[in-house]
Each structure stands twice: as structure tokens, then as C-alpha cells.
Amino acid sequence: MSAEPIMEPVMTQQDVPQQDPIDLLIAIEKASATPIRPEYVEGMAIVPPAPNDNHNDGSGELFFQFRVAGHRLVGMGNGYRAAHKDGITMSLLIPDFYVRRRRPSELDESYRRTHKGWYPIDMIALVGEVTSTNHETDTGPKLRAYAAAGVPVYVLINRNTKTAHCYTTPVLPGDDPTEAFYDAESKVDLGEPLPLPAPYPTLDTTPFLES
User: Which one of 22, 28, 97, 193 has the lowest number of neighbouring Cβ atoms within 10 Å?
Assistant: First the structure.
């Protein structure tokens, strides 16, 4: 999401007893004196501080561009869960924006209740992140997490390098999600249009020139 994250390691599968990452994030939220939205990526709980105005304004502009292009299922704010083959939580992610494949079905809502507020990540067709000082998280662990979960398109606005990226063709070469990657990438400087694969619009990235 935005600024310098606080990270907390979670017990590995070899540790006994193993703490469900969802319960860890709930505990972190309850312990915080201010509202937070923690996430879980590659065995770490990440607590990003509140994003600044440029981050929110730019994310809102991208949301609007998808809506204008007819993508009614674009959204912001929902949390999504990806799981390993054995059903153990792999990642818990709150994208800055996303395009869903579908509105939540009764099965999706049942999943959300079972997993304490997290929807299944297979609802997502396109996901987007906007960096701040946590650019390493969005360009590393989160990129790999989305690829491991099979999210087809990852849009990244990297305000650190002043570039915009569209990643496609997720690849998970084995069982280790930290080895996942996207096989194709388009990249432009901020201020230039970022082409996305059909049926998505070309994005205007000029809202991020003012940081």
C-alpha cells in the first residue's frame, strides 16, 4: 500500500503450534492505537502506515479510468486470500485497486465469513499497487505473491523510479511461491500512457507526476 512497513515474522510450518496468519493480523489490528490494515506476504505480517494524498488521489484516478472504460467491477478496499495447495494461507493482500472477475457469489461470501473478512483471490482478474517508501514490498514480495496466486495482470505505479509497469503471464515454476514471477512486462515513465492487455484501457499516469 503506502509508506514504510512494519514487518512481523510468522511461525513456519515446522513450528508448533502454527498460528493462522489471519489470526495474527486480527491481533495486530486489535493492539494498534490507530486504525490499520495489515497484510501477510511471504511469511511476514506487513503493517503499512496511512498513504499520502498523492497516493490516494492517483489510485482514485486509475479507478475512475477503469469505470469510464466500462469496467463496473473495478474496486478498492477489499482484502483477498491466497492459499497453498494444502489449504494453508499463503498471502493476505489488500490491493490499492483491482478488477474482479465477478461480483461476490454466495460461495464467495461464505468463504469470506470462514476466513474472517478475506475473499478468495481467484475473484481477481487485474490487480494494482501504488508505491511510496515501501516500493521494495510492491516490486518484490507482492509481485511474487500475485504471480504465485495466478493473478493474470499486475499494474504497478512505482513512484520511487517514476515508472509505471504492466506485468502479465504469471509463472509458478514449482511449489515455492517466492520463486513466482511474471513472464511479460510493459514499462513507461510516469506521465506516459501505460498500455494494458485487452479488454482494459490504456492508463493515463499523469496524476502521479505531482508527488
Answer: 193
In tens, the pLDDT along 58-91 reads 999 999 999 999 999 999 999 999 999 999 999 9
Tens digits of per-residue pLDDT, 123-143?
999 999 999 777 889 999 999
Q: Three-state SS for 111?
A: helix
What's the pTM value of the predicted model, to 2 decimals?
0.90
- Report the distance separating Cα 37 and Cα 32, nearest Å: 10
Between 211 and 145, the more confident residue is 145
| CA-wise closest residue to 186 among 163, 207, 206 | 163
Closest CA to 164 of 136, 142, 139, 186: 186
What is the bridge-based pairing of β-strands 119-120 and 80-83?
Answer: parallel
| Cell numbers for 69 | 472504460
What value, to the nearest 5°, has the Cα angle with vertex 112 and ends 171 and 48?
65
Place of cell 503506502: 2
- Residue 110 gets the label, from left (phi > 0), alpha (psi -120 to 50) or beta, of alpha
Cell 513456519 belongs to 12
Stretch (H or E) spanning 21: helix 21-31
